[in-house]
Design brief:
Layout (H helix, E strand, L loop, with lengths): L3 E4 L1 H9 L3 H7 L7 E4 L2 H7 L6 H11 L3 E3 L6 H6 L7 H9 L6 E5 L2 H9 L4 H7 L3 E3 H11 L2 H8 L7 H6 L8 H19 L7
Parallel strand pairs: 1-2, 1-4, 2-3, 4-5
Helix pairs in contact: 1-4, 2-9, 3-4, 9-12
């Protein structure tokens, strides 16, 4: 049985912008039935991320509608603690808190500020233990896609969307002249840097 995967807004938008969302989910051996997204996400996509074109936001809503929607839990216990930690926004706090009920899960997030706060906040020791080796970042997914698919295809899809992510903008900075080896090296450096800042949270894939 596959683990469930809690997915944040940032990762959905960036992967949809690259037209790689479902390919990335496949890298983890998951299907739409394994995905968990906040019920409020599609309403957020309709109004908030103005830096993304309308077409991307509509595609992101279509993705959300194929996922299992989760309601935000009452604000008490762990969620209350999470929402008091600087660097963890309310949406990320909800996704982290609802992992309590799952014996096997991934947390797919593009919020590096949240992960760094999670790794260092002294009041989140138990949360860190639960999330250890279960967090998936965007760079890991792009890395695995390049390792398992034709580089030229991934390059063509990522280049128009690299402006939406700092790491992708840097790693694919050479544009059409980018090489597979250089992109892989850049992605691995970003992942290693995040590993060093997040104390074992990242999954090994």
């Amino acid at each position: 049985m596959s683990p469930v995967c809690f997915v944040d807004n940032d990762v959905i938008l960036k992967l949809v912008a690259c037209n790689l969302f479902w390919e990335a989910i496949g890298v983890l051996g998951l299907t739409s039935g394994d995905l968990r997204v906040r019920a409020s996400t599609k309403y957020y996509f309709r109004s908030k991320p103005k830096n993304y074109p309308q077409a991307v936001r509509e595609q992101a809503i279509a993705v959300v509608e194929q996922c299992q929607l989760i309601d935000d839990p009452p604000i008490n216990g762990e969620l209350q603690i999470l929402q008091q930690v600087e660097g963890i926004d309310p949406g990320e706090g909800v996704l982290i808190a609802v992992t309590q009920t799952e014996p096997s899960f991934y947390l797919m997030t593009g919020d590096k500020r949240c992960l760094e706060a999670l790794a260092t906040a002294p009041q989140l020791v138990e949360v860190r233990q639960r999330l250890e080796g279960r967090v998936v970042c965007l760079e890991q997914l792009i890395l695995r896609l390049i390792e398992t698919q034709e580089f030229s295809k991934i390059l063509t899809l990522v280049l128009p969307a690299r402006e939406y992510d700092t790491a992708l903008r840097a790693v694919f900075g050479s544009g059409e002249r980018a090489t597979r080896d250089n992109v892989l090296l850049g992605l691995r450096e970003y992942i290693q840097d995040l590993r060093s800042k997040t104390e074992g949270l990242l999954v090994d894939i």
